[in-house]
């Protein structure tokens, strides 16, 4: 069976299940060619526009389903508490829906707005994004919990080993741009102790807040999308990740846009300048591994993450001066 035929069969299976469970009549659909392995459709129905996402069994084996359901429960709760995020459909108390043949999927209402180009958000959009992220963090972590981290900060030894592997590959391929970027990383790793992150707060965070997962109106954020990765990690990722993704253009990070985000965030949560800078460095530490020789199959987001990581490398020693007035 071809990939196209398989996708068509999965689509029909999901659509029939939607009609069977919810009585929704599907008039038309458009497949979304975005993301990795999971199939997605925008569908026109008798109750309005909906979005369907199938969870590929390779990317999402059964052992991940419980965690995914927890993430979606958080999304549903945030929607009910006023966070602009898609309204999920549930059946028998579950948001991860299952067809008779065993295909897992999620169904939600469409949201208005548009995905913007990385680095192109205006000040008002950044301000409202800061408000939403700040309120989201307050709601998610209203009842503190003590649980294992889904992901922890890499130790210095592991960072060094990962760097060395990428360094050898870049030199083998004689990629001057990557070699230069890795030289900058090496200087930072040599002078930075992981103790820098010892005071990072633990809690629930979206953990995937970049431009592709945000919708905007001309003067505001209109929706936060894709809560599949939401987990108990370091919420600080949700501060620097959208700032870098939405405001860095691509060699300049306008201070006024960062200030707008921080001002919005502070309406709901404390955010000192040192914490902002630590957040940026934390994202650099986590995503340093993306700085490697470009491959033919690299996604557009991965290429963008490299640009952002290199910018932080270039400004590592000057972040305090850059954001002193925030």
Automatic annotation (TrEMBL):
The lineage of its organism: Bacteria, Bacillati, Bacillota, Bacilli, Bacillales. Signal peptide: none annotated. Transmembrane segments: none annotated. PANTHER family: AMINOGLYCOSIDE PHOSPHOTRANSFERASE DOMAIN-CONTAINING PROTEIN (PTHR21064:SF6), AMINOGLYCOSIDE PHOSPHOTRANSFERASE DOMAIN-CONTAINING PROTEIN-RELATED (PTHR21064). This is Homoserine kinase type II. Residues 29-243 form the Aminoglycoside phosphotransferase domain. The keyword Kinase applies. Belongs to the pseudomonas-type ThrB family. The keyword Cell membrane does not apply. InterPro entries: Aminoglycoside_PTrfase, Kinase-like_dom_sf, Pseudomonas-type_ThrB. GO terms for molecular function: amino acid kinase activity. It comes from Paenibacillus cellulosilyticus.
């Amino acid at each position: 069976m071809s990939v196209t035929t398989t996708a068509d069969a999965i689509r029909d299976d999901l659509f029939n299940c939607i009609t069977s469970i919810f009585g929704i009549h599907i008039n038309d659909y458009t497949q979304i060619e975005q993301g990795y392995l999971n199939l997605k459709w925008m569908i026109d129905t008798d109750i309005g526009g909906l979005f369907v996402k199938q969870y590929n069994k390779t990317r999402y084996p059964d052992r991940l389903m419980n965690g995914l359901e927890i993430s979606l429960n958080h999304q549903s709760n945030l929607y009910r508490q006023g966070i602009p995020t898609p309204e999920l459909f549930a059946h028998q108390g579950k948001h991860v829906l299952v067809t008779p043949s065993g295909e897992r999927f999620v169904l939600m209402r469409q949201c208005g707005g548009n995905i913007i180009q990385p680095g192109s958000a205006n000040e008002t959009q950044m301000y409202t994004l800061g408000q939403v992220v700040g309120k989201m963090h307050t709601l998610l972590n209203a009842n503190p919990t003590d649980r294992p981290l889904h992901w922890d900060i890499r130790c210095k030894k592991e960072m060094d080993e990962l760097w060395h592997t990428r360094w050898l590959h870049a030199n083998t391929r004689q990629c001057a741009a990557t070699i230069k970027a890795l030289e900058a990383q090496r200087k930072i790793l040599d002078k930075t102790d992981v103790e820098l992150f010892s005071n990072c707060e633990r809690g629930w965070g979206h953990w995937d807040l970049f431009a592709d997962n945000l919708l905007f109106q001309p003067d505001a954020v209109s929706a936060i999308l894709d809560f599949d990765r939401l987990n108990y990690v370091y919420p600080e990722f949700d501060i620097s990740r959208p700032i870098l993704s939405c405001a860095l253009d691509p060699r300049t990070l306008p201070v006024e846009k960062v200030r707008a985000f921080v001002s919005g965030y502070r309406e709901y949560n404390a955010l000192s300048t040192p914490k902002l800078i630590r957040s940026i460095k934390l994202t650099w530490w986590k995503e340093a591994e993306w700085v490697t020789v470009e491959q033919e199959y690299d996604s557009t987001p991965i290429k963008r993450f490299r640009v952002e990581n290199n910018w932080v490398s270039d400004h590592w020693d000057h972040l305090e001066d850059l954001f002193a007035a925030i």
